[in-house]
Every structure is written in C-alpha cells, then in structure tokens.
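Notes to self after the Tuesday call (sharing in case useful).
The group wants a holo model before anyone commits to mutagenesis around the pocket. I volunteered. Ligand is 1,3-dihydroxyacetonephosphate. Logging inputs and output together so the record is complete.
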Amino acid sequence: MRQKLVAGNWKMNGSAASIQTLLDGIQAGLASVKNAEVVVCPPFVYLAQVAQALAGTSMAWGAQNLSKEALGAFTGEIAAQMLNDFQCKYVIIGHSERRSFYGETDQIVAEKYATALKHGLKPILCVGELLSEREADQTEAVIARQLDAVIALNGIDALNQGVIAYEPVWAIGTGKTASPEQAQAVHAFIRSRIAAQAPDLAQKLQILYGGSMKPDNAAELMAMPDIDGGLIGGAALKAADFLAICQAA
Ligand code: 13P
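Result:
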C-alpha cells in the first residue's frame, strides 16, 4: 500500500497573519487525518514562520520552486541549500505556472530535479497537458516527454526519491476537475511507463492529482487505484477545506 500524501501549494498567496491563522486551523484538525502525510508549500519568505510553527508536528513543508544553481550571482533566486536551512522536506518542481509564465523547459525542470536530489530534498515533479494538447490527443505524448527529460538526465532510479503530480493545466484554478476516470487513466499511463523500466519503483511511486481538487471531489479521485493523494491550490488556503481533503485520503 502506498502512503497517501496531500500537499497544499499556496502559490503567491497569504500574509504573515493569514498564514498563522491557516496553520493554526490545520493543526487544530490534524488529529482527524488518519491516512495521509500532510504537507504545505508556502511562498519562500514565509518558510521560516512555517518551519517554526510546524517543528515537532507530524506535518512537513516544502518550497514551491528552487534554483538549479548552487550559491552565486543569481539575483532573486533561491538555492537548494537555503531550503535546507529551513528544514524543507519537499520542493515543487516544474509546476505548469513555472513552465508557462517563466519559461521553464523540460531541460530546466530536469536540472532542478537533480539539484533537489543533491541537497536531499524530495521533488514533487509536476507534469500535465494543456487543453489544446488534450483535444489534439497529445496527453500521453506530452506527459511522456516531460517525464523522459527528467529520467534522461537523472536516471530512472532518481524517481525513487521523488513524487509525481499529474496536473492537467486545463483543470488548474478553473473549477474544472478531471473526472476520476480521466485522472486515473493518466496516472496509470505514468505508472506503466515507469514500470517498463523499473517495475518495483513504479509500484512504490506516489502519484498525486492536482487541478481543482476540493472537499466534494477529493474522495472519489483518491479512491482510484493509481491516485495517491493531491496537490491542492485554492482549497489549501482554507483550513476547513484542506483538512476535509486530507480526511478524504
Ligand atoms: P487548484 O487546486 O487551485 O486548481 O490548483 C492546483 C495546483 O496548481 C496545485 O499545484
């Protein structure tokens, strides 16, 4: 049995005050979450606050991005070793917003994956197709290309140390969720593609779904055999909704 994982990607939201309220709310209900590891990924500047609030609890935290470079003259970037300073366990890599708004290519994503592993961070590797790609029947080809870039640079065994998140771009922040069957089909495709090279690894690999996961659809999505949890955007910003999703796992 794979452990379920529910991660909140807070994106560029929150303030010191609202984050404290959110963390207090999540922690107040945490005892009711039986089956999932619970993770939050705040904006970088709030990592110290989150690390302090969650130290010694069962929750883990991560960053939403990192630089592929080590320390140096890279204005505005954040290095993996800085994330180590704040005890990040996870780092989201290759989110579709990074790919589309900030030009992150498959190659850059693969290099970031390597940097994360080098520093003991667990990458949450995001893959997913645009609506136009789905409509052109390109979903599997796109996901295969995104995965293969990471495998080509890092080797298949590198996936052992990470988590994959399938996030169909057309479902992110749109209120349009992939149906459980649509999501399951892609999750099964991802697992089978990895199984072709590493069957044991594929069985152990956690594959999360992301894209308008909410309290009212979380249980049926996470009941699918290859869906091992969620990467949650909007609904992770309300403690009650986030907890309800964690409880559905
Ligand atoms: P929403 O849950 O807001 O659709 O966002 C999903 C997402 O992008 C998580 O990384």
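Two things stood out.
The pocket of 1,3-dihydroxyacetonephosphate is lined by residues 9, 95, 167, 172-173, 210-213, 231-235 (CB under 6 Å).
Residues 39 and 60 are 5 Å apart (CA to CA).
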